[in-house]
Every structure is written in C-alpha cells, then in structure tokens.
C-alpha cells in the first residue's frame, strides 16, 4: 500500500483530539421545527419547483444545508468510483483548495506537477507545508524532488492535464509513492466520464484506487453540472468535514443541484454509447489532423491543442474560426506558459464526423 500509515495515523489522532474536546463535527440531518437557523431569509429555498419539495440549500452542510439527497448521492458516487467514502464540495476549485490547504503542516512537503490546475496551486499557497514542482509528467524529475521531501509527503497530479490533454503515468507515480512512503492526491476532473469503463476515471481503469490517498472528481465537465467529490478513506472524509474550510464555511449545494448530479451519474452508468462515440471522434480528429499535417499535441482525450505563440495570429485565427461558426477560444498566459499560447479544441460525443473534418480543414487554411 502506498498510503502512508503515518499520515493516516496523524489524521486519526487529530480526529481523536476533536472527540476528546467534544468538538468533532459530523454530518447530521436537519432538526425539525421552526427555522431559526438557516440563511433562507426570504423563504425562497422552500419553493417547490422540480422536486415538489424544498429545493434550496439554506446553510452549510454542518448547520441546515445537509439532506438525505446529499448523503445518498455521496454513497452512490463512492460506490461508482469504488471508494470507501466520499464528500461533495461545491466545485472542483473548492475541493482542491480545501483538501490541499488543510492536510499537511510546516514539517511536511507537497510535490506537484508543474502543470497542475490553479485550484491546486491556491491550495498549496494556503498550506503551511514546503512545496516543490517537478517537470510535467517527468518521472525522473519527480524522483529527484521526492529525495528532498521531508515529513509527510503529498504528490499532486492530474489524470488528464487540462491544457494539453496529457495523461499522467499513474502506475510509475504509484511505484515512486511506495518507495518514498508518499501519498497521492489525484485530480480526475477531465477523466470523469471520459477515462475507464463508464468514465470511472484513471485510478479505477488501472485498478489503483486503493493506492491513492484522495481522488477528486468534478461534476462541471462531462457530468454537465457543477460541484465535485473527494474520494478517500472514512477517516479522510471525517477529517475534511472538520478541517477543510472550503467545505465548512460555505452554503451547501442546493438539492436541485444534487438531483442534477444524481441524474448525471445515472446517465453515466448507462453511457456506453456516448463514451464510445467520444472515443471514435478523438481517433478521427487525430487521424485527420495528422493527414492534413496539422501541428497539434495529440491526446487520447477530448482535449487537443495547437500551439500558436504569436498572440495576434492566435487571436485572428480564433476570430476567423468563430466567424465560420466554430466555437474555439485562444488560451493565453497565465493559463499556459508564455510562448505556449494555443487554440484548445474540446471534442464531444455529439460532434459529427463532418464537423470534425471541416474544423481541421478550415484550421489548416489559417495556420
Ligand atoms: C484539472 C482541474 N481541476 C479542477 C478544476 C476546477 O473544477 P471546477 O470547475 O468544478 O471548479 C478544473 C476546472 O477547470 C480543472 O481543469
């Protein structure tokens, strides 16, 4: 097992301290009675629209914003992604920020891929621990940085990197995590609904779930909703409920959102067709772009990019493509490194083969 026993022990000790101080937070269902606790100042949250019952939130999960919908969905998501436990956050940003900022102290170390998402970077900034980046997807670089790491160690990586569609070498990263007794936090935002059987993610695809300290699945990408889940051990989830500020001090997702996410997971369970159409579109894009000699970063994911460091040209090409009826956006610094500005193409199951081919042909004329 790569999950460091010392970190698990540390989490448990912290929780025991909370029990001793009688301050352990748990997720309870709303108490009944006249509402003097929620933030539902105008009663809007009690409107019965889609669900024929109250759909609003009314407060944080620890006060009035918890419900059976939240708890049942967390169980469903944990089961789907093969995890012991699960906690829903209001967004992927808040999930990354919450876990990374609260899990380590100043004697510990975070080692992160240079291309990790801004939300993880902000989590690092809020954390008191030491941190070092390693070269993107470079196992030797990770190995070298791990040699310098002290205390409990977290390795922060993403299954699919959002700006170039590269996939992390999770098997090798797990090997290294075992060697250095480090813990992996894996952001599966762009793998959710895309990678593995029914889009369960990279860890499940490689059968490595039990080797990962925490997985973050977001609902704002393939699931078409908003929110995120952190998957991990029961102790980790209890720890987050007690220490992750971005979970504690915010209004919970309203039931209407929870219902949407629940529905999206049911769709995902039956999603064989959409996922195979998406994969066939990815293959078609790569094949056609290569045939047309387009200089792009090939990826086995929906994210394909074409580097165009000349910003004027990049913006001009995007505008021209927009005029031709293609929704494309230029990606600029600081989202990507200077000199690596690009057009980022996101493929979908519902794009037709004709649309993909004409996208490539029109782009080729402008490049
Ligand atoms: C890799 C990655 N992690 C986290 C997030 C944040 O997710 P959310 O949009 O749900 O806040 C994003 C969104 O762009 C992302 O690309």
Explain what this protein looks like in three dimensions.
The chain has 367 residues and is an alpha/beta fold. The chain contains 13 helices and ten strands. It has two domains: 5-269, Aspartate Aminotransferase, domain 2 (3-Layer(aba) Sandwich), CATH 3.40.640.10; 272-366, Alpha-Beta Complex (Aspartate Aminotransferase, domain 1). Helix content is 41%, strand content 13%. It is globular, with a radius of gyration of 22 Å. It starts with a helix and ends with a helix. Bound molecules: pyridoxal-5'-phosphate. Residues 91-93, 96, 117, 119, 158, 162, 187, 189-190, 218, 220, 228 line the site of pyridoxal-5'-phosphate.
List the helices and strands and how they pair.
Layout: H1 5-20, H2 68-80, E1 85-89, H3 92-102, E2 109-113, H4 118-126, E3 130-134, H5 139-148, E4 153-158, H6 170-179, E5 183-187, H7 202-205, E6 214-218, E7 228-232, H8 234-243, H9 245-248, H10 255-269, H11 272-291, E8 303-307, H12 311-323, E9 329-331, E10 342-346, H13 353-366
Parallel strand pairs: 2-3, 2-4, 4-5, 5-6
Antiparallel strand pairs: 1-7, 6-7, 8-10, 9-10
Helix pairs in contact: 1-8, 2-10, 3-4, 11-13
Q: Which runs of at least 5 residues are low in confidence (pLDDT < 50)?
A: none
- Helix percent reads 40-55%
Distinct helical segment count: 13
CATH architecture of the largest domain: 3-Layer(aba) Sandwich
Overall domain count: 2
Across the major sheet, the strand order is 1-7-6-5-4-2-3
Which class of secondary structure composition applies to the elements?
Answer: alpha/beta
């Amino acid at each position: 097992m790569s999950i460091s026993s010392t970190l698990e022990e540390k989490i448990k000790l912290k929780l025991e301290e909370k029990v001793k101080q009688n301050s352990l937070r748990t997720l309870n269902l709303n108490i009944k009675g006249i509402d003097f606790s929620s933030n539902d100042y105008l009663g809007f949250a009690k409107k019965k629209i889609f669900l024929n019952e109250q759909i609003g939130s009314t407060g944080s999960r620890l006060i009035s914003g918890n419900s059976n919908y939240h708890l049942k969905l967390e169980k469903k998501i944990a089961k789907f992604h093969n995890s012991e436990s699960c906690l829903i956050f209001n967004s992927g940003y808040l999930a990354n920020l919450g876990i990374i900022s609260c899990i380590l102290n100043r004697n510990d170390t975070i080692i992160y891929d240079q291309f990790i998402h801004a939300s993880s970077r902000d989590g690092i900034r809020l954390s008191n621990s030491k941190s070092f980046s390693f070269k993107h997807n470079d196992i030797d670089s990770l190995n070298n940085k791990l040699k310098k790491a002290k205390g409990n160690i977290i390795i922060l990586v993403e299954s699919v990197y959002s700006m170039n569609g590269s996939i992390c070498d999770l098997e090798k990263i797990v090997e290294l995590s075992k060697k250095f007794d480090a813990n992996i936090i894996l952001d599966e935002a762009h793998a959710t609904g895309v990678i593995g059987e029914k889009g369960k993610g990279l860890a499940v695809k490689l059968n490595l779930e039990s080797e990962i300290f925490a997985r973050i699945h977001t609902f704002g990408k393939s699931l078409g909703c908003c929110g995120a889940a952190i998957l991990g051990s029961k102790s980790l989830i209890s720890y987050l409920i007690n220490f992750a500020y971005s979970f504690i001090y915010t209004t919970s997702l309203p039931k209407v959102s929870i219902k949407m996410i629940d529905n999206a997971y049911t769709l995902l369970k039956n999603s064989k067709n959409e996922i195979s159409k998406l994969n066939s579109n990815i293959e078609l894009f790569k094949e056609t772009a290569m045939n047309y000699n387009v200089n792009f970063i090939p990826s086995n994911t929906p994210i394909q990019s074409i580097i165009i460091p000349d910003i004027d040209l990049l913006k001009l090409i995007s505008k021209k493509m927009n005029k031709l009826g293609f929704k494309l956006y230029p990606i600029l610094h600081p989202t990507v490194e200077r000199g690596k500005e690009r057009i980022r193409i996101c493929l979908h199951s519902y794009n037709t083969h004709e649309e993909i081919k004409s996208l490539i042909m029109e782009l080729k004329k402008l490049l």
